[in-house]
């Protein structure tokens, strides 16, 4: 049936007469119909991508793209004066992730389905997910985020398991979200707790953390700054993997597979250590089915692969052995046996699963009892091999491999920047969709003035769209003629939003002294801080105070604006990224495992201002030195500075007047008048006395390179050429490439 007829049938009305709400429902029905017409076969071996987070974003537009009807539908609707992107706005964004790791999992699900591989995601259905960020008194406040609505994409199944944990017998319920690929539909399996009770929540931070039977699937990572919060997280992790293990076994048996050879039917990708308890849980279930312990360990080891996303010590999960022992004794028995086998074999204490402090090291368990360990960018994997996990690399060199992260081109190009995609198609045709490295063909236009001008025009259009959106959403008027300088990512000291703000403080003071930038600058931030991460929240406070100070001072705001978006999420990212010009990737070298925002921004023609960290290193290699702005200490220098404990921040403050000037301003009367003295003072003290992530040593080179960039911006033709080189070389970062690599070298499905 013709698409417009089908839509009218599903709306029960002529398109012209429909409201956006009616069209929204009609489009959902149309998607469901087309989905049900897709025929595909399953196969023998299936991938389970297990993750505590899936930051999936809205689904309507990417579903339409993957069904191949996006463009046609957009055109049909616009003939009737309707705007598909307005209609898509009606979808609530699911709130099931924090940042990079959850977004990566979602890009992966997209690529797995697009490449017609059989693989599902498995996680938890958090009713309120991650908090909704609201700004009050220039601070981050956390509100609940009830995202599940009547028209939700969730399907309730009749699959339910009981999970014994602590003193509880918990009953689960499986919900699924369809992941539509090209002629294939996979699932995101989300387990919920049947007895969960939303009524126990008063505000985001206020609920009984001990009431596991009612709270288990309410929130993503409730505050783990206290004992009860940590325990709740441990319960969540076990609940997730216990259900997952049961699902794997049931699905395998249902298609005639055998538990003795489970590894031929299922492969499990463990996304960071959050799902690591799946290893002892699978072993436990196999033993319960009559398989010997030795055999069970062997099977599970051949099934499980672990991805490491961080080298930050505080993010490497370690659980108190006694907590595991009391809440899940059946699992603890198995972990003890696994640990004993290692202790018998190796005397090196750094290899022990249960260490001398009686902590269970999840990553160590994954490495010993899985068949693959991968880092997420080349530099990151090398650091794992050479330093962090060197002891493991020595005994298991064959397990270590790199899988440089990637991004879904359907979402981050086709859906969020259709203008750019159409332009690319007009230049090099459609062939790049099956191999995004073909974007490189764009390089032949590097001296074509018409092409370069069009790139600038598309960017300008996208900047205007963002300005409109920002004004509607947050009532702020941005100047589309200014340079859009963007830092969008979780707030963390190692990502160094504070360095960006110190630069902006100096810029503000320069402007006050009459030193004006050639062109106005708009600094855009998007970031949530973990609810209990005090210094991160202080940095947000500083950004918001600076925003208020500048925006209420007309003499400055003509030249410099700060815009921090409230509740940064995937939907915001889809608006900001196509409009971005400077991509701030300024983490302390060695600390950002990969980054994926850097890839999205590059693909959309923003130029990177970055340290040689994570995947920035690979971006630099791909685009060449002339098309990226790098600065700062190298990862080797940083690692060495930590080793020798040689960094003292006070020295830099005393010796660099620009650092002193900016840092002192944090506790100036101007800012004290707008903000909270305690927070501002605490932040200044932190920088002066600690600055653990070494902002000061990189500050001078950051300032110099950023100024260079702002000045180069004025040569519009050269800038457009650099944009083109970035877009042309972004194809490597397609998650299709990443997933092909995972499948070829790890999953083999
Ligand atoms: C651990 C223990 C207790 C509570 C919470 C956690 C926790 C939660 C979330 C630890 C880590 C995370 C998230 C990590 C994350 O998002 N890492 C990012 O992963 C991206 C995808 O690989 C990389 O691109 C980023 O560099 C990395 O920071």
Structure write-up:
- There is one protein chain.
- The chain has 749 residues and is α/β, with parallel strands linked by helices.
- The chain has 32 helices and 20 strands.
- The strands form four sheets. Strands 1, 2, 5, 6, 7, 8, 9, 10, 13 and 14 form a ten-stranded mixed sheet that branches. A six-stranded parallel sheet has the order 17-16-15-18-19-20, with helices on both faces. A two-stranded antiparallel ribbon has the order 3-4.
- It is globular, with a radius of gyration of 26 Å.
- The mean pLDDT is 96.
- It binds ligand 26Q.
- Ligand 26Q binds next to helix 6.
How many DSSP helices? 32
Terminus-to-terminus distance:
35 Å
Q: What value does the Rg take, in angstroms?
A: 26 Å
Shape: globular
Structural class: alpha/beta
Query: Could you give a short account of the major beta sheet?
Result: 10 strands, mixed
Helix content percent band: 40-55%
The parts where pLDDT drops under 50 for at least 5 residues are none
Strand fraction: 5-15%
- Number of DSSP-assigned strands: 20
Average pLDDT for all residues: 96
